[in-house]
Specification:
Elements: H1 5-19, H2 23-28, H3 31-34, H4 38-53, H5 55-63, H6 72-87, H7 92-104, H8 113-125, H9 139-149, H10 151-159, E1 167-171, H11 177-184, E2 187-188, E3 194-196, E4 213-215, H12 222-227, E5 234-237, H13 244-251, E6 255-260, H14 263-276, E7 281-284, E8 296-302, H15 316-320, H16 323-341, E9 344-354, H17 363-372, E10 376-378, E11 399-401, E12 413-420
Parallel strand pairs: 5-6, 5-8, 6-7, 8-9
Antiparallel strand pairs: 1-3, 1-4, 2-3, 9-12, 10-12, 11-12
Bound molecules: S-adenosylmethionine.
Length: 422
């Protein structure tokens, strides 16, 4: 039996995605994938993403049909086979044969060919996988979401895990939004983002080459708008790469300093500036130790985080994250907030945001920040401001954006705006 290159690539993607944090992003950028025929590449990507988006129900169904846990590589083949049968337009026999072929191709999994065949056939015979949204998230994360946001919200946000997201774009010039919406067949969203359901190479979409827009999730576009930065103002984005928010600030007319400690990620920011014709001072440095005396009218801290809010595009984050990881990034955020304070002019403002759904990286962080820095106060965010969904506004005037707060979904985010009052 020969191995189908598309299925082998899907398996490699899955193994890499679940092997370490941010593994999917790296795997999707890997040269091996680019070398495949477009048809095979698309299948590999679709199969791996379908598996990751339904991993909870798939694992539940497999566990119920396996007498003892199989070796990891066998489980990966079973997961991929189940995803093809239930969530892709693949005939059952092809999903089963392809999976048996994958098992046969490796010495370690070869002895489990019969098991793969039997388990997948039984799965198909015994009917659909669980459709309970609670099963879509790892139990420990779901339990945290329930505690933080209540049972109803936890189920509604978990249901979004299974959905394939559309692509959101930010127009460089808000006045161009209507024309772009027409050319791209995109839907305008509150706040000014555009949502496009189309597929294909982003580089080929109308307006890309002329830099009339950049890809940015609807939720990710909100924090920079809330800064209200305008011409004549100085702004620093302390964690700027790959650059969506820095581009927004530059497009608003502010004098932007875009700092990030990752020189390689900053390359994407520089490329974005070049393509859009926007300008910013780009600095590769650590925000905590950056040796520069300047202070700014407005400071944006889009801090490194657990990224659970990005599960629509990166479903792997849900399955590779651990509780200690959350504690670790939360500690980094609190140090970065203290570093950010040193950059805010008297009377200036500070926006802290993270694409996380964990309260240690949002509400607790904001509360502790205000305790540590009595010279800062919350500048409350109003419903609708910058596209903020009304359901996301908290009693404190912060935003807790949950993925179901917009029809069709959006990334989970926490945003707080502070003003220096002392
Ligand atoms: C959430 S991402 C920023 C996304 C970016 N603001 C955007 O809109 O495209 C977090 C960034 O923080 C950077 N980072 C992490 N620790 C840092 C530090 N101590 N100083 C500066 N940048 C840091 C990472 O390299 C990463 O690019």
């Amino acid at each position: 039996m020969t191995v189908d290159p598309a299925r082998k690539a899907a398996l490699d993607l899955l193994v890499l995605a679940l092997g370490k944090r941010a593994g999917l992003e790296a795997a999707l950028d890997a040269p091996a994938l680019a070398l495949l025929e477009p048809k095979d590449r698309n299948f590999a990507r679709a199969a791996a993403m379908a598996t990751l988006r339904h991993l909870g129900p798939i694992d539940r169904a497999l566990d119920g049909r396996l007498q003892k846990p199989p070796p990891d590589p066998v489980r990966m083949i079973l997961r991929l086979g189940a995803a093809q049968m239930f969530f892709l337009d693949v005939p059952d026999y092809a999903a089963v044969d392809g999976s048996v072929g994958l098992a046969a191709a490796d010495k370690a999994t070869q002895p489990f060919k019969g098991l793969v065949n039997a388990v997948l056939r039984r799965l198909r015979r015994e009917g659909p996988l669980s459709s309970d949204p609670a099963d879509l998230a790892p139990p420990w994360l779901f339990a945290r979401w329930q505690t933080a946001y209540g049972a109803e919200n936890a189920r509604a946000m978990a249901a979004v895990i299974a959905e394939e997201p559309a692509t959101d774009l930010t127009p460089r010039d808000p006045a161009d939004a209507k024309a772009l919406a027409g050319a791209l067949e995109a839907t305008p969203l509150p706040g000014g983002s555009l949502r496009r359901v189309g597929r294909g190479r982003i580089e080929d979409w109308p307006g890309f080459a002329e830099g009339r827009w950049w890809v940015q999730d609807a939720a990710a576009a909100i924090p920079a708008r809330l800064m209200g930065a305008g011409s004549g103002e100085t702004v620093i984005d302390l964690c700027a790469a790959p650059g969506g928010k820095a581009l927004q600030l530059a497009a608003a007319g502010a004098a932007v300093t875009a700092l990030d400690r990752s020189a390689s990620r900053l390359k994407r920011l520089t490329e974005g500036l070049r393509r859009t014709g926007l300008a910013a001072e780009v600095v590769a440095a650590d925000a905590e130790t950056w040796d520069d005396p300047r202070v700014f009218d407005a400071v944006l801290l889009d801090a490194p985080c657990s990224s659970t809010g990005t599960f629509r595009r990166n479903p792997d984050v849900l399955w590779t994250l651990t509780a200690p990881d959350v504690a670790k990034v939360a500690a980094v955020q609190s140090r970065l907030l203290d570093a950010a304070v040193r950059r805010v002019k008297p009377g200036g403002r500070l926006i802290y945001c993270v694409c996380s759904l964990e309260t240690e990286e949002g509400e607790s962080q904001a509360r502790e920040f205000l305790r540590r820095h009595p010279d800062f106060a919350t500048a409350p965010i109003a419903a609708g401001e910058g596209g903020a969904p009304a359901a996301s506004v908290t009693a404190e005037g912060w935003l807790r954006i949950l993925p179901h707060h917009l029809d069709g979904g959006l990334d989970g985010f926490f945003v707080a705006r502070f003003a220096r009052v002392g």
